[in-house]
What we know:
157 residues, alpha+beta, 8-stranded antiparallel sheet, 27% helix, globular
Amino acid sequence: MPIKQNHFETNWQFEADIEQIWGLINEFNYGDWWKGLDSKRIAVGSAKIGVGDRFKLFFQTKLPYQLSFESEVVKVNSPNYLEIKAFGELEGSGIWKLSQKGSITHVKCIWDVRSNKKWMNTLAPLLRPAFVWNHNQVMIEGAKGISDSLGVRLVSL
């Protein structure tokens, strides 16, 4: 039986310039501002973040487990779009879409991933609501991290 793909979509709005938000997301220094997340650049295509760059990401979640995976940048369109492919304990794709209207920057994060952790896949039919809650908690920490790091107002989650 194939492992189910999970779709997660998160939307944030900040009272901030799109370039400020893009600077944090595109630099991949998530451990500097995102509680429970760390990242390390493992392959460099150029001085700036670009297609082909690879990162190792580590998540300490609200539930008692960790996730780690590698990601590779597959498309960048500054300051509006960043796409990665993920492999390791999570496999699939992640997309950041940013847009600005007036003083508000909208951030949409879309994850289409599946777990490669056997215990998660075995328990997923029973624990899916807990996994969704856990994902949402991780993303709330990301929004708070951006707001706190930049000193900008988080308008909505």
